[in-house]
Structures
1.
Amino acid sequence: MTLAQTKTADSLSIYGETVGSRLLLGTSQYPSPDILRRSVEASGSEIVTVSLRRESSGDGKAGQRFFDLLKSFGARVLPNTAGCHTAREAITTAHMAREVFETDWIKLEVIANDDTLQPDVYGLVDAAEKLTRDGFKVLPYCTEDLSVAQRLVGAGCQVLMPWAAPIGSARGLMNPYGLRTLRAFYPDLPLIVDAGLGAPSHAALALEMGYDGVLINTAVAKAADSVAMAVAFAKAVEAGRLAYRSGIMPPRDMASPSSPVAGLALL
Amino acid sequence: MAKIDIIGAGAAGMWQAFLLSRQGHKVTLYDPAGTPSQNCASGCAGGMLGSYCEGEPGHEEARDLGLEAMEIWKEHYPYLKLNGTLVVASPRDVADLQRFAAVTQGHTRVGADEISALEPALEDRFRDGLFYKDEGHIEPFVALEYFIKEAAAQGTKLVAEAWEETDADVVVDCRGLAARDHLKTLRGVRGERVVVDCPGVTLSRPVRMTHPRIPFYIVPWSNNQFMIGTTAIESDDRGPATLRSVTEIMAAAYALIPALGEARIAFMDADVRPSFPDNAPRIIIGKTQSGRPRLYVNGLFRHGFLLSPILAKITADYIESGAKAPGVLLEDHGEW
């Protein structure tokens, strides 16, 4: 099977929509809109996130040019509620985003602390319940905590986006045990690692663990060559997914020869 | 000698008027908001001439043009300050400083002692920094006034009215974002600033602080004034600075130099910088309605003051001799 055939046969379904690429890209902090566009194109990403809050200072119309640019990429635009500190703020932002982007998908972020950008899990569950009731399809940025995950699923979330590490920290998977537990508990729920990945190997590891996708922003936007880094992440995501589907050999304590031993002449 | 109309009396227009009239052309500078303009992105600038600091990946063109522009600034502007730029980070944000060091040139690493020696106001507060010794800074209002006055002394006629087609041989269009009526890809990138008075604090050069959320800079002006700026928001909104931006700017400045806590707020404002999709500047050779050359000097993004002299020189060389400037001076095929 070629790489292209593998991908086609293995698409991801989020809220009933089929997504070919398991790499989601954030759109902040790129050196220019032109480099952003080229990075998205090179990555093959089909979902790009955008913060309504920061990019639309003023009456909500002023950032229209940037939004139009994002829409022109052909990828699905997934608005987020970045920078919101309360459920109420996040809900208002989600409603504005639904108007601006004509989508009921919302990447829900409710931030507890500006230094760690840690999710406020109480506010998150609260907002997720209300937004689901309002007809939104919520993709919550959460921790890997199982009890929070259960509450979010109970609130109607059909996807979870647990962090690997604090946003923009580039630290990789800080709690692999917790992430494995979450994966094992929800074998069929789409799980996308959302934050804290720095190197393509971090992304590959997440996919090897069975995560359905990753969302990257800073690691691509702030690379010395964003376009090339976008490609590196796309390849890592493909490699990780293919490895997961191929059955990764579990680690063992003792050596095991890779050449056959039986039949060797006894000298 | 050519008869030249320049539209727009911001940083780009004033440098065009200055260099072109200096070469003996018959120049008229138009701006309905006055000369210098009271309604342009340049009026909301900081005045850093940071050719290296602005050379992050994706902005190599601005850096290279900026280095050439610095030589022109040195030649023509007596009030240019050439004390370099200091970039610092708090200990927990050293990773951001390391990244900045890796992606820019023209700097040396400095430690606590060197930082204290360069800027006593920062004494004992920072252990890691980068010193860009060849950068400079100017005061935007002072520079605008100076070059407009010099241009007038060299024969530039100043007209505080909107431009209408004349019999000029060449039109140089420096209208910034207003030129969007002809250049459809221009967009605004919003910047906000606070200017404070603080007699108790002295800085010799612009200081930047790297920070994951609030990278900001502070530029010392004359009369104990400091310009504190930060934001680069994808927005065309020219409205006043927001409470959130101003709070972040001021908190960051106060963290950099606690003595700024006693500073008095002189004013705060905001404007949008005209930018092409790749944030690189261009001179686009178009035509006026009557078929005469119309050169659009635009897309200066965050580099209005830094790059205006070199764009003026490229324009002047083109008008004089048809000299080319690949990548910067481009024929208009309607793609912009």
Note: The interface with chain B takes residues 30-35, 37, 54-59, 62-66, 69, 114, 168, 170, 222-226 of chain A (CB under 8 Å).
2.
Amino acid sequence: MNWFKHKTYPNFYNAYAESFKHQRKSLEATRFVVFDTETTGLNPNQDYILSIGTVTVQDFNINVADSLECYLQQDHFNAETVEIHGLLKAGNITKIEETKAIKLFLKHIEGAVLVAHHIAFDVAMINQALKRMDLPKLKNKLVDTGQLYKNTKYVKEDKHYSLDQLCNTFNITMHDRHTASGDAYLTAVLFLKLSALLKKKKNRDLRLRDY
Amino acid sequence: MKNTIAERILDFLKGFPPFDALTYDQLFTIASQVKVLYLEKDSYVFKQNEGLHDSFYVVKDGGIGVYRDNNLVDECDEGDIFGLRALIRKDHYLLDAKAIEESIVYSMSSKVLEDIIITNPKANQFLIASFATNTRNPYSKEDKGTLFANEDFLQPNTSSFSEIQSAKFSKNPIVCQAHTIIKEACLVMSHNKVGSIVITQNKQPIGIITDKDLRNKIATGLHAITHKVEAIMSTPVITFPPTITVAEAQIAMLKNDISHLCITKDGTPNSELIGILSEHDIIVIHGNNPSVLIKEIKRATSTEQLKYIREKAQELLNNYIEQHIPISFIANIISAINEAITKRIITLSITETNQEPPVPFAWLAIGSQGRKEQLLLTDQDNALVFEDVAENQKEIANAYFLTLAKAINNKLNTVGFELCPANMMASNPKWCLTVSEWKAQFKNWVTHPDADKIMLCNIFFDYDMVYGNHQLVDEMSSSIFEAIESYEIFLNFMSRNALKNPAPLSFFRSFLVEDSGEHKDQFDIKARAIMPLVDAARILVLSHKIKDINSTIARYQKMETLEPQNKDLYASCISAFRILLRFRTQQGLKHDDSGRFIDVNSLSKADRLKLKGCFKPIKDIQELLKTRFKLSQLL
């Protein structure tokens, strides 16, 4: 018996992990999955994911057909955040178990670069869920639009720019703010605008490592 | 599964044609397949000669310019569709599509397009129309006319009240039996003064004979009048229930190429015949046949009668507009009615004076009435000219014509043509002059032009003789050309005045609206769109010394023959003018006002598109004036 031997993981996780082995480097071929999570609170160690919304960007187009929107069943409920995300414990939206949502999500982000606004938090929330499923952390490359904004400017300041602020700065009409899908979409538009800015700053076509 | 993003896209699309014609489910399917493109300023969606994309595009935010050889030919903004043409023709792109500003564009697969075309006729119609408008270029041979050919196309199908009301059919239809002899049946028809007879069996209609059958089957010798009616009757008959609407009846007649419908109890041929509905009945419902009205006008003996007839003419106008009758036709009819009314009022007024006019005179309609472009009832504009009289007779003649004019103005007012607030009426001593006085006045206006005089020229040069002596009017016209010849720079002044209202689009995209006053934020369709076209046409015919062509459309038509090199431009001016005139009339009827000021935000996307299509010719004709009259130096 070898306790230190690698664990064996379920097939869906293996397929997910496998998808990064032969990653192609061209930016055009890269599939960016822009995502957002709504949660019961801001502490990954004790709060839970309420919903995940994604939209993909490929070849600098947002592909609405390739998106994911799921709502998770809640055993843990925080009444205080309801007014932010509007998700009730019961409610009339079809909800699925957390494990099922994570499975769908992993399948959806196979081989993709993940993009989110202040991505560290969303990734931490997902990783926490993976941990509950006894699975390792996410393997995707990550792009943070908050950081990307700072990269496109010559500012060194370590200021925190909210999605709201950036939507205002970049003239992005805000709809469905504080739904995971809505925020993911806004983030995707922001991502496209920032990419264009970054390209201008670099004065050449972008490469993946520019992000 | 919930799809917030698709729902949001759907919410946007559903506000714009053709998507507004689709069902929620269709739209949802489309929305969930959309690709969202973000375009920086100056980046291309597609380029000329580029291979076909498998999609068409809808602008979400920003603006996309469509260019042919680097010339902007169209500008698409929120809700506009582009890239259709290549997709429909399955050909490479003939145009560039480039972001004029930072834009977000929805890209939709051609599969979506095919679905729309197959499943929804209304959306299909719109797509074909946008197909034309989006590739419009009034100067290209290939697309010529396509933009304006859709004038009617883009209008929402407003069914008028009269069309959805149930039709009034003739009860107690004239009937006979199948074995009745043709001659007898005809005698019955003659006796009852009807154009048809229904053949019944057990009170159910089995066939019909109309005047047409008698002409085609009897008079040609195919059948003898001694045959039985069943030999020539049309069978089976087309039947409808008594609830049939005017629209249904019209469609049924058109579809079956017949002029009579049988009305039965339950609408089937197997129930009792209770009436007959003829094409004539339909005409009576739409009523107000213009020739009947003109006859009535001629017979009228009081202003009250004329007022009643003018009200009927208003209904007629309403119906014509709703039925999309060509606007030039409508303008002719309404002008003819107005003219007949004015003539009748003049004769009535002369009779009232108990005195023959001391010298010959002519009554002139001026301004839009003179151009026969006044469809809505607005205030009256007119003038009077009379023959020169000896000095000692002048006072008497003046007094007579002023009294007469006053009576005419008042009667016109009673009929519904309000008194002109600016007093541009023949009862004003300034506009009731001898022919020599008019000539002197015109000469003064032309050779010493200032803003006021130019405005007067614009009104008075568009005169149309309604009543009186033609010789006097000819003299007036000749004097205008003599004056202009002696002082040619006058036309340059006139052109400069015509350019005071710039093309109605502010830097491309938005309508120029009024920035202050009572009509703040409204679009002044008269000053900004109609008048520039009217003014330009007047100047152009004057510069060619063309007399007696007063309507704007006729003037541009004349210009087409005089300057074949500019034919396309003039043709597009005519089309634009027609659209604008119809539009103004519709707005006026809708809001019961002059239709002049339009709340742009209340317009449908299609109407905005249609109006914007008219602005390019305005801009182009103004450019032409600018070049021709060397206004860059003058301005």
Note: Chain B touches chain A through 21 residues (CB under 8 Å).
3.
Amino acid sequence: MTEYTSRNIRTWSMLGSCGAFGIAAMELPNIDDRCVVLTSDLCTYSSLDRFKTKYPDRFFNVGIAEQNMVGIAGGLAKENFIPFATTYATFAATRCADQVRVNMGYMKLGIKLVGLTAGLSVGILGATHMSVEDIAVMRAIPNIVILSPADCMESIKAVIASAEIESPVYLRLSGTMNNPIVYKEDYNFEIGKAITLREGDDVVIIATGTMVYNSCRAAELLEEKGVSCRVIDMHTIKPLDENEVQKACNAKLIVTVEEHSMIGGLGGAVAECLAGMNRHPPLLRVGLPDIFMHAGTYEHLVEKCGLCPPSISDSIFQYLQSEHCNR
Amino acid sequence: MDKNDVISRCTAAAKEMRKDALTMTLCAGNIGAHVGGGLSMVETMAVLYMGIMKYDIDIPSNELRDRFILSKGHGVLALYTALNQAGFIPKEDLWTFKMNDSYLHGHPSMNPEIGIEFSSGSLGQGLSLGVGVCLALKRKNNNTSRTFVLLGDGECDEGSVWEAAASASHYKLDNLVAIIDKNGIQYDGLTSSILSMDPLDEKWTAFGWNTFVVDGHDIPQLYDALSRQSDKPLAIIVNTIKGKGVSFMENDPKWHNSRLTKEQYDQAMKELGCNA
């Protein structure tokens, strides 16, 4: 069984979210005998070499054919297996969007689609490999649970939790190797239930994926300026923990932070939730601009997009000074 | 049952299905129906459901059943009428086709209780599902059930069909049968003028399948082809006539999806030797 020790947590962080997926995959047959794993020519990238060796009859590498992979996973799910299928997040959400829509959405086949390198982590390969629309695409399709873990331990917990529910799941894995650690020790992960990492009254930052860590650091910087921030890890984008959004309405400002387009992602989800409420504070959405980015290293792109902790902190501080928050 | 008896049972079913399909089209009124491509596959479906496939209407999820996937989802007229022949769908329900709140949609909607294993309509997806089902059957050591996937020839334009075809032979799925209803006409006209896929049989063979070409309206030929045991995935290309059985529909692209007037219906029924 997976042991959530501090040493393991450090090792998983070094491996990054793809490596963490490979660790979690080794547990899947123990969790449920019906688990199988598919990939579209990303066996090594998904850290599945050990899985392939130990469980050759549970592993299918379908080649560079993502649409077929989702269809095959659908057939396996219909026959009562629990298929995990891996590809780059951008191809999971866009190249096979129709297969995802029909198989996972319409027919509710229990496929667990794993989107690797979501966000900007392989940004050096250019815009074709950045995945900044995947949450928007997946959110618009009914019946799909969307998980976006904050660090490598949470990625492992999300994989295991996915195996334990019947519904289709899109698992968004973001970050690079040496992923920052948000959770230094074991904790309770529950799909649909956000986690408050830090308490504060002025601002509530709702963050997801890699941006949870950056938001925690931004909150520390804001504290130095006398602004107290609550930080929430919204690891489940759908169904959104609307209770937490409701509670956040007591603050002066709600902020969403994500490594995803500002259109249709976590910010969109929270905005839609707030739109249904009588009274709510202003919402500042921090995310990627509505453009295709030039290629660049992860660190460069994160900084350029204003997603590093000082930029997040500055954006929030400036917004608090603006007329939006002082009407 | 003696083979000749099976053939006559399939023949009788096909006649009834063609008649019912036309009545369903009339019932759909101005909404119309995909009647041309439904009529082209009537004999294939009759042979599958009355002669070849194993199913259990009392326990539809019986593990030892054969699986059927209608990848060309618009061919529902032939599917629903076959399911009626098999005993899954009552006759009177056929006349609710395409009506508000009817379970008989214009494209099949997943309903395992009545033998509809998957939803379809978005072309090019059924064969991948079939590959997944066949892999699952093998992992469950079910060596008796086969999976039949019915595709249109126009549908074979979709690249995902060929991704699935390649994977089926890679995984040596001798329990998978693809049936390609080659009626030669797609929405916008002749397949040969829209996107020529000929020689279609050689393409399937090149993808590692055992391939046979038969007359899709010849029930004994269909029966023999669908009864074949194969050491590879099996592709059966059935040469058919779109709108088969109705003189004014045959080989006319405009009957891909069309409404039927009462006069046309009466004439069609007369041609089929039925009293409307």
Note: Chain A has a mean pLDDT of 97.
